[in-house]
Amino acid sequence: MSFFSKLGENIILPQDVLIQSKETAVVPGAINATIGIATANKKAMALPSINKVITEINNSEYLPYSPTPGLPKMRELWKEKILKDNPKINDEYLSLPMVTTGITQGIDIAANLFSEAGDALLLPNLFWQNYAQIYTIKLGNNIYKYNQFDENNKFSINNFKNTLYAIKEDKISLILNFPNNPTGYTPSDNELIQLVEVINIFAKEHPNKQLIIVSDDAYFGLFFENNHKTPTLSATYKLAENSNCLIVKLDGITKEYYSWGLRVGFITYYTKDDSLRLKLQEKTQGYLRSTTSSPSNLSQQIAIRLLDNEESIKEKEENDSIIEDRYNELKSAIAKEQIDTLVTVLPFNSGYFFTIKLPNTINAHEFRLKFLNEYKYGVYSMDNEHIRIAFSCLDKELIPELITKFKECIQQF
Taking every annotated instance into account, which residue ranges of this chain make up the domain Aminotransferase class I/classII large (predicted)? Predict the structure, then answer.
């Protein structure tokens, strides 16, 4: 006898980064480069002003319930930020953001409101595994995967196009996650223009197909190379001119303001259809009401003070510079050790991560365990051939050693 529903039977706790991070934690002296957080000296890289901000909040402000879609000031401040980050978009098309419990809940909302069993989900071949848990196990979507990079290790517009055109379903969700987790890649300005044009032409050629373009902007702002800094919405907003395209933006203070545990995310819609925009906000609030009911008031009170504070904004920029310094150190170490003669380092230019594809003769899970237990570095084995490393977790002085030891471990295999 089973007490579980069909969903209950199918849902799993993936043996993913959280499990591997716990394995790393129990190895004495191990450096944890598995998880999507930024650290300094093995502690979370906070904004120094956050402790001051917390002490300024009166309990009469944070103890009452928050409105279901979030505090009005929180929503207005985030909309102002989106408009500032994306000056080309039409502010009348942009909905007022609604607060979610992290970006994960935003993904769950986008999945549940717009897709169901038998619909399609288009993803790169390397993606955050929670997408699959939400869209396929919970909702029964069919996943189509395109190769993010071609045989020359270049971003593949052609494979994206071919995969999109091969989809037979009439409703398609496309998740655009730039900077990408796990690869740390953001398309160049030209690549992003081409990508959007492929979607635009497809939408016009297939007017009976509905396209939900979901931008997962979890790592927004951490762009480290010129010509690879265009925000996704600054390119996709043009798709709103197609009546069969809906644009959904997901983001939050999680990574942008070094506030992972506060779990303040946002879901925002971009459409020229005024009545649809109102309905989207109403339906989203209904979904929020039926799940978390209302977001954390305390977290929002903290977030408001971070966003509306020149000191904390300056601290954020300083932290961003630290992550960029680590990125540059990593690029130098990879070039110096020439590890790309032994493995394939996938292109990366942004975010927290980079990904290495191992030779067919080396199993990624076996490599991870050897690297952890013998070299004291915890990395994330995503599948049998890919290793993801969070350089955001590595103090700058540790990066050359990690690359040197990675090379040594590869050579031992």
Answer: 47-405
pLDDT in tens, 345-366: 999 999 999 999 999 999 999 9
Q: Quick check: helix, strand or coil at residue 147?
A: coil
Model confidence over 84-94: pLDDT tens digits?
A: 999 999 999 99
Q: What is the pTM of this model?
A: 0.96
- Tell me the C-alpha distance between 367 and 386, whole Å: 10
Interacting residues of 154 by C-beta distance below 8 A, sequence separation 6+: 347
What is the domain-level CATH number for residue 383? Answer: 3.90.1150.10
Residues 134 and 258 in one domain: yes
| 156-171 b/e (C-beta count within 10 Å ≥ 16 → b) | bbebbbebbeebebeb
Q: Which of 276, 310, 344 corresponds to the end of one domain?
A: 310
Residue 337: which domain range?
Answer: 11-46+313-411
Whole-angstrom Cα distance, residue 51 to residue 62?
16
Alpha-helix runs per DSSP H in 140-188: 157-165
Q: Report which secondary-structure segment, H or E, holds 387.
A: strand 386-390
Q: Tell whether 41 and 86 lie within a shared domain.
A: no
Split into its structural domains, the chain has a count of 2
Q: What is the pLDDT of residues 226-261, one digit of tens each?
A: 999 999 999 999 999 999 999 999 999 999 999 999
* Per-residue pLDDT band at 15 (split at 50, 70, 90): low
**Token couple for 246:** 């809906």
Q: In this structure, what CATH number is given to the domain that contains residue 99? A: 3.40.640.10
Of 278, 310, 342, the position where a domain reaches its end is: 310
| Strand ranges (E), 170-321 | 171-176, 210-216, 245-252, 264-270
